[in-house]
Amino acid sequence: MKIPRNAVIVGYDGSPDADLAVEWADRAAVQRSAPLHLLTSLYDPAAVNLSPSTAWYELHLAELEQAVRDRLVGLASSSVTHELIGGPPVPALVDASAGAAMVVIGARGHTQAAGLLLGSVSQHVSRHATSPVVVVRRPEDAESRRIVVGIDGSGGSAAALDFAFAQAGLTGAPLRVVHGWWHTRPGRVEGLSNPINDIPEALASGERIVAEALAGRRERYPDVTVETVVVPRPPSVLLTEESATAALVVVGSRGRGTFKGMLLGSVSQDVLRTSRCPVAVVR
């Protein structure tokens, strides 16, 4: 099936987090006047090992088709398409991301253990997709509209900041730009463009990073309310704390200090696991 160009693509498996992902994706598609495309996979890794019968597959297919029909009811998007595939969802979602506005997935699907905070599909898609990926979970503060974005002066955080500004502009949400750093040993400050030894100097450097990042973007988005935070806290800890009162946390896929060749940096991985609201990973 040909997926519409610049569609908002959402992976759907009938799980509670997938339902939340469809709701989030539907709003995003309406905000962008973009088509919405649901992708559902029949693939069940547990069933593959059991060599299920044709009757099992037919029952599974019927259940999924009914779940999709139910899920499509009441969507606000003007253009909605759906695709049912037989193979694993990760390669299909990653391939579809090449021409997508974004890919939206639930934090955990039906096959994930109850104690896990992040499922394997969301982990792999957020690592390998070429478009922004939004991993959706129920926000701790359901009333919050705030968007939080973490920056460190890297190219990855610049892309995250662009996404966050655009999302705030589309939704009218306030934007909170945060910058944190950590200590690798007493008296030494890491997480800045150049490691330094003095805390006041680190604060000043952090303020410069934020000011340089915002230069020009405030002018492009004059209606977006922006608040900045520069504090000596490890970035992943700071963003997780911020997520408790946010509607969305935005991170770059890789920041400063990430080894060349890594597809997802340690901060973005940590935030995906521990965030208390949806997370957008941007390249």
Task: Write a brief caption for the model.
This protein is of the alpha/beta class.
Structure description:
- This protein is of the alpha/beta class.
- The protein has two domains: about 10-135, Rossmann fold; about 145-280, Rossmann fold.
- The protein has ten helices and twelve strands.
- The strands form two sheets. Strands 3-2-1-4-5-12-11-6-7-10 form a ten-stranded mixed sheet, sandwiched between helices. Strands 8-9 form a two-stranded antiparallel ribbon.
- Helix 6 (about 155-170) links the parallel strand 6 and strand 7.
- Helix 4 (about 90-95) runs parallel beside helix 5 and helix 9 (about 235-245) packs parallel to helix 10.
